[in-house]
# Entry
Amino acid sequence: MEGAVTALLCRTSDRIATTAEGARALAEALGERMGVQPRLVGTPGEPAETNYDDDLRDARGCLLEAGGQVEDALNAGRFPVLTSSDCSVCITTLPAVARLRPDALVLWLDAHPDFNDPETTPSGFLGGMCLSAACGAWDAGFADGHLDPAQVVMCGIRDVDAGERVLVETHGVGLVERPSRLPELLAGREVFVHLDLDVLDPRVMPGLHWPVEGGFSDGGLRTLLAQVAEAAEIVGVEVTDLPAPALARRVATIVEPLLP
# Structure
């Protein structure tokens, strides 16, 4: 299958300056492995400690572009690969996957569930509320449907806010504590992979905005992704939060087992 690689450079809810360049560098490294020229969308904005409602307003066009890139690739029978500064893109990308691949599961590899809502968020950070918005747990102002939270399988989660934990549990999101269980759980299923690089240990991925100790090693994550790719049918991938552009080639090596 032909791939479609996109780097979303425009600001969604970025709070550090280097992740847009990280998205560009990673898209170039992945495009090189896939033999395709990556598309660069938008220009980086200034990082800021803004509230979710301001980011929803100011980044609406950027978020719509993210979902449109995934939708266009899937409609064309291509394999979407999206790189971005921040997980907020999932507000539109995952509903696009749900519309076009309604049986697909979403494998959410992240140190955080990103399942807060406006009532539970301690930080007001859109990137910490984006999956819940994609699943319709609160209204982010996009009218293109939602992902069923029961089709989400989380792994690598290590930092959960108290109110967020309640939302994850009451919405029926799957949470896998033992990564070794993933290949069996996902066997034979279509799977779209969301990979936030903070699922890696901070010693492997320095400079993360929300680092959490106890994450995967780079070799351990690559092995897991290879096992998942062997067991399931991967239909696309998005990778976020690369704060160190110099590590793009290393990250591309980690992600490579998922590529067509």
